[in-house]
Amino acid sequence: NVQLEMKALWDEFNMLGTEMIVTKAGRRMFPTFQVKIFGMDPMSDYMLLMDFLPVDDKRYRYAFHSSSWLVAGKADPATPGRVHYHPDSPAKGAQWMKQIVSFDKLKLTNNLLDDNGHDSEKYAEENYKTFVFEETRFTAVTAYQNHRITQLKIASNPFAKGFRDCDPEDWPRNHRPGCLPIMSAFARTRNPMSSPPPQ
Amino acid sequence: NVQLEMKALWDEFNMLGTEMIVTKAGRRMFPTFQVKIFGMDPMSDYMLLMDFLPVDDKRYRYAFHSSSWLVAGKADPATPGRVHYHPDSPAKGAQWMKQIVSFDKLKLTNNLLDDNGHDSEKYAEENYKTFVFEETRFTAVTAYQNHRITQLKIASNPFAKGFRDCDPEDWPRNHRPGCLPIMSAFARTRNPMSSPPPQ
DNA sequence: TTCTTGTCACCTAGGTGTTAATAT
DNA sequence: ATATTAACACCTAGGTGACAAGAA
């Protein structure tokens, strides 16, 4: 059994239509994909890996007037079957279960030549179990399209703090009209990012 | 077979009498202990670990007038048998050998209550091979005693760049008397730190 | 046009020796 | 006296979106 961490934040993005930047050098995902794992055999070794499933083979473009994604042709040839092994692999079940497993080093790239930490598919014949979290679905972009996604990223990613025009700590004391939509998405009870989990 | 990396730098420190700061929170070693490994079985799994051997059970204090260490009593009770497993352990021989193995995350502490990434001794009964590098011998201190050690740390550790009063790149162009001894210790051919090995 | 890339200021995160204050 | 601690300015290292320039 696997439980997605930061589910509330993922849901918030998902409601707007999550976008993830891809670059040639590789860009981290935000929110970070991290999970709690239950029910492994504590003494057995496990490999943990992550890959990405194309939802369809279409290409989309964002229509700003209607704030929606429109089909705009066929997708690029599918990404070669690459998987990202969690760097702690292999490890005992007990190790995986005793703390949150984070894929924060994982980077998305549109450079087909660069592996970026991805390995070619192996172990395909072995027993494995797959978990899909629909709320982590995203559209890969080279620049953000939906401005509300940009604002939610700025509001919730600590590394983008430089672009905030309103300190969440100061709200509602410093309440200004322009901050309201961001703040409503940044309710502290739903977003524990500011105090990241140990290790 | 194991080969110490940055041996020239280690030798330079060792000639002066290397000192390493220990703190309650833990302090990295500098130079970093890193090695190249040869002759493992590529397919076998290996644990790699590091520990510290007290050279004697004496306590020392530094005599500034003679620039030497004088015996000043008996050592504290020996550190409990703690070892530091390399975080990549276990891994195949091929993996260990294909790049430099670095213990850069290792931290020294005088806090007996804090493990600081150290594990209690295990595998004592299993087959293992030990390598000692005499040139990495050091004196644990809470504050640097030998000023020449301080200057060599400042000259060679990138994180201490803020304390340099002379940019190695500008020498001998900007040659000033006060910089000469530091620069002679920082010959670029003997200190590749400025361009760290990939990954 | 539309999409992609490279550079930038601004952050987070954490490793330095210094210094002054505190402990022994 | 001497040894240790804690706060600090100054770094390295690298993750952000904005923006201007370039490519398709």
TrEMBL record, chains A, B:
GO terms for cellular component: chromatin; nucleus. GO terms for molecular function: DNA-binding transcription factor activity, RNA polymerase II-specific; RNA polymerase II cis-regulatory region sequence-specific DNA binding. This is T-box domain-containing protein. One of its GO terms (biological process) is positive regulation of DNA-templated transcription. It comes from the Eukaryota. It is found in: Nucleus. Keywords: Developmental protein, DNA-binding, Nucleus, Transcription, Transcription regulation. Residues 4-165 form the T-box domain. Its main location: nucleus. The keyword Transcription applies.
